[in-house]
Amino acid sequence: MPNKHLADLKPGQFATILAIDIDAQMQHRFCALGFRCGQKIHLLRKGKWLQGPLHVRVGMTEVMLRHRDARYIAITAIGESI
Fold first, then answer.
1. Separation CA 18–CA 11 (nearest Å)
2. CB neighbours of residue 15 within 10 Å
3. pLDDT by residue (tens digit) across 6-37?
4. CA distance 26 to 32
5. pTM for the full predicted model
6. Phi, psi of 46 (to 5 degrees)
7. Of 24, 25, 48, 67, which has the highest C-beta tally within 10 A?
8. CATH code of 38's domain
């Protein structure tokens, strides 16, 4: 089964980060924001347009990500919010 990416989640879903497949400079930026393998992530909402930004929570940090950057974050979905 192919990996899902952060951009594939629906608002309200939780996931665990499996890998971040991007260049070293961007990987360093993601890491500084709390995006690390094994970290739980919550997709709060998506932009209205097809390729709109994603509003995510990683730990205690909330971040807006470009859709194209979210495609580099492989995840395993673990459920819906309560």
1. 19
2. 23
3. 999 999 999 999 999 999 999 999 999 999 99
4. 10
5. 0.85
6. -120, 150
7. 67
8. 2.30.30.90
